[in-house]
Design brief:
Layout: E1 2-5, H1 6-13, H2 17-26, E2 31-36, E3 39-46, H3 48-58, H4 67-91
Antiparallel strand pairs: 1-3, 2-3
């Protein structure tokens, strides 16, 4: 197994550092905490078999084919979020 810093792992998989730490805390990723220079540092343990499973979860299954499709998906998501926001406002 190879060790990677949280920042390097996040950069490799194009994730935020927060999401990587969250995945490590929930057990989705194997990790270890090491004390270096008086600070606790979180390292991700990289195993090739586990990496393939994690990559399947991270990467979108059907990425949009064009910018027009992606734009349409984003507009639909915005509409859904606006409706959800209105429901929350009415619930007060």
């Amino acid at each position: 197994m190879k060790r990677m810093s949280v920042k390097a792992y996040a950069r490799k998989h194009k994730l935020s550092i927060y999401n990587v730490i969250k995945m490590a805390r929930t057990g989705a990723l194997e990790s270890e905490t090491v004390e270096e220079e008086g600070k606790e540092v979180l390292y991700i343990l990289v195993d090739e078999e586990k990496e393939q499973e994690v990559e399947k979860e991270i990467l979108p299954h059907n990425p949009p084919k064009s910018l027009k499709e992606e734009n349409a998906l984003l507009k639909a998501e915005i509409q859904r979020l606006k409706q959800e926001l209105e429901k929350c406002r009415k619930g007060r």
